[in-house]
Amino acid sequence: MYGINIGFEIGKRALLAQQYSLNLTGHNIANVNTPGFTRQQAILSSSRPFVSAAGIFGTGVDVVDVRHLRSIFLDEQYRQETQNLGKWQMLSSSWSQIETIYMEPSDSGFSTVLDNFWSAWSDLAASPDDQAARVAVREQATLLTNAFHHFATQLSDYQKSLDDDIDKRISQINQIGAQIANLNSQIASTELNGNIANDLRDTRDYLIDELSQYVNVQVIEKPTGEVSVLIGAMQFVDGINVYDLETTVKGSGANIVHTIQFKNSKVKPDIESGELSALIDLRDNIVPDRIRELDQMAVTLVRSLNEIHRRGIGLDGKTGQDFFKATVTGAADINLDDAIIEDVAHIAASLNGEAGDNTIALEIAGLRSNLTMNGGTATFGDYYNAIVGIVGVRAKEASDLAQNQQTLLNHIDENRQSLEGVSLDEETTNMLKYQHAYQAAARVITTMDEALNTVINNMGLVGR
To answer: Are residues 213 and 65 both part of a single domain?
Structure first.
């Protein structure tokens, strides 16, 4: 029968529903600054009605669900742009670091050292028999070779440091994968009876967001609540299983090759974006290209200058002498010939050996303006300035793209936060709404209690 007891049940359900909503509002407010937290909303619905011969009567309210206010579309957009941002931020930082190696423009930069080297030969041409001018040529040549060595060492060391950075990223990626797999297990067991593990899902989504900074990922959710995380087209996390990445080293010396692969299958992942993609590009392409440019310059300089110097005659009367060691292979091993280091008399300034003849010194000084590099289209100075220009342009490009990408990501995150983020103003409004509803529900029970008291204590008493 639809009596007073039903009224108590309606009041009880109202109290429980509003209390649950208040608790959920407090949970949202408590996590307003929690990274990755998504606000939750209690979904209230009328409970199953009471059906009698007199009709259908309401029985109150129930909390039928807790809505997790996330947008799969915005999450996918955010992760896609995070991958791109991670790549361009890493490239921007790295190109800036390469710029500092060149130290241009600078009074002590390579271009200044190269100009001083050519000027020393011009001074020797002006005084071919002057001992001091010969010493100046040797000293400027030593500074030039040291500058080449500095470049080679700095770039080589930076390339090696990139291997360490890649190893660190691989370790971080594997750790995140293990955490996602563990959360998959917890979520699947929690949701087995129909509940939704919202807080666990938030933690997992936050980890996937972090993972997207390092590498390109795709996420596929299973009916069990677990997710599969793919790197490229290869599974990285599948439910509770993690397929770790590893780095391998093959070869030795100049032929050493570092590769990234899945530990079990030995298959190389298709890494297209994220910080790891940028680090691989830097290590395998960008830095080696800079080294090759300097190597080409060093080898061409040695070959061109030695060809002229061998035709000359030193103060010792000898000819056929190399100025630089002819065994040079690049910027790392360019050096003066031992004979030049021991005695500047071996420096050839004359073509015929006669006093005052400066033919060879003039010809070597003329290399400054000769079109020797890039297949006879650029001087040594032009070639080096072009190298520095490329670095500057690439650094500016990467910086601009990183800034543009950050702006785009901020816009997407604002859209995401407008849906998923906690608004203290909104939650305060909800709290007052649920509080008033709770007070009203308590008043319903009080009223029903008074009615029941009337029935029990004040009805059917004879003589009153």
So the answer is: no
Closest CA to 197 of 224, 170, 218: 224
**Residue 417 forms part of a structural domain:** no
pLDDT digits (tens, 9 = 90+) for 175-199: 999 999 999 999 999 888 877 889 9
186 and 55 within one domain:
no
Question: Per residue in 325-355, pLDDT tens?
Answer: 999 999 999 999 999 999 999 999 999 888 8
Q: What percent of the chain has pLDDT over 90?
A: 69
Radius of gyration of the chain from its Cα atoms, rounded to whole angstroms:
39
Q: Are residues 162 and 32 in the same domain?
A: no
122 and 46 within one domain: no
pTM of the entire structure? 0.85
The CA-based angle 162-163-169, given to 5 degrees, is 85
Report the 3 state secondary structure along the chain: CCCHHHHHHHHHHHHHHHHHHHHHHHHHHHCCCCCCCCCEEEEEEECCCEEECCEEECCCEEEEEEEECCCHHHHHHHHHHHHHHHHHHHHHHHHHHHHHHHCCCCCCCHHHHHHHHHHHHHHHHHCCCCHHHHHHHHHHHHHHHHHHHHHHHHHHHHHHHHHHHHHHHHHHHHHHHHHHHHHHHHHHHHHHHCCCCHHHHHHHHHHHHHHHHHCCEEEEECCCCCEEEEECCEEEEECCEECCEEEEEECCHHHCEEEEEECCCCCCCCCCCCHHHHHHHHHHHHHHHHHHHHHHHHHHHHHHHHHHHHCCECCCCCECCCCECCCCCCCCCCCECHHHHHCHHHCCCECCCCCCCCHHHHHHHHHHCCCCECCCCECHHHHHHHHHHHHHHHHHHHHHHHHHHHHHHHHHHHHHHHHHCCCHHHHHHHHHHHHHHHHHHHHHHHHHHHHHHHHHHHCCCCCC
Same domain, 350 and 222: yes
Q: 32 lies in which domain range?
A: 4-69+422-458
Number of domains making up the chain? 2
